[in-house]
């Protein structure tokens, strides 16, 4: 799968399946420095991925500061041919000063055995 560079960051296209609904997100940052995989609530609310009273809310920390997120298990998360079923994602506001749909973190990349070729801008 091709990686595109925008504002000096690597972006990929990701597909999510949750409760029988499928969504493709084109504006997802590939981030080996992020422990988790997180998606913008605005990008996934229409799939039914709202926060419910039984969901655990926790605080995550990153270079940009801290934010509160909640976790959900999706039926499938795919990045090209790389995919995991029954995968836990985090959902938050992702107010980072620029619009993104999400971040694919090391938890996904390591489990699928992803190889990132920065010369060819490909992930496989």
Given helix and strand content, the structural type is mainly beta
Instruction: Give the % helix.
Output: under 10%
Strand content: over 45%
Shape annotation = globular
CA radius of gyration? 14 Å
Distance between the termini: 6 Å
Largest sheet: 6 strands, mixed, barrel
Question: CATH homologous superfamily, by name?
Answer: Acid Proteases
Mean pLDDT: 95
Number of helical elements:
2
Strand order of the largest sheet: 2-3-8-4-7-6
SSE arrangement, N to C? EEEEHEEEEHEE
CATH topology: Cathepsin D, subunit A, domain 1
The CATH architecture can be named as Beta Barrel
Word description of this protein:
The structure is a single chain. This protein has 124 residues and is mainly β. It is built from 2 helices and 10 strands, in the order E-E-E-E-H-E-E-E-E-H-E-E. The protein has helices spanning 41-44, 106-112; strands spanning 4-6, 9-18, 21-30, 38-40, 57-62, 65-79, 82-92, 102-104, 116-117, 122-123. A 6-stranded mixed beta barrel has the order 2-3-8-4-7-6. Strands 9-10 form a two-stranded antiparallel ribbon. Strand 1 (4-6) and strand 2 (9-18) form a beta hairpin. It is globular, with a radius of gyration of 14 Å. 26% of the residues are buried. The model has no long low-confidence stretch (mean pLDDT 95).
What distinguishing features does this structure have?
single chain, 124 residues, mainly beta, Cathepsin D, subunit A, domain 1, six-stranded mixed beta barrel, two-stranded antiparallel ribbon, 2 helices
């Amino acid at each position: 799968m091709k990686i595109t560079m925008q504002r000096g960051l690597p972006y990929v296209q990701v597909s999510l399946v949750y409760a029988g609904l499928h969504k493709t997100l084109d504006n997802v940052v590939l981030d080996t420095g992020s422990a988790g995989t997180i998606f913008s609530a605005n990008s996934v609310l229409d799939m039914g991925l709202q926060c419910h009273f039984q969901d655990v809310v926790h605080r995550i920390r990153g270079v940009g500061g801290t934010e509160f997120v909640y976790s959900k298990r999706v039926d499938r998360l795919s990045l090209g041919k790389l995919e995991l079923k029954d995968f836990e994602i985090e959902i938050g506001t992702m107010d980072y000063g620029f619009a993104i749909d999400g971040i694919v973190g090391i938890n996904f990349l390591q489990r699928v055995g992803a190889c990132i070729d920065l010369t060819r801008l490909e992930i496989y």
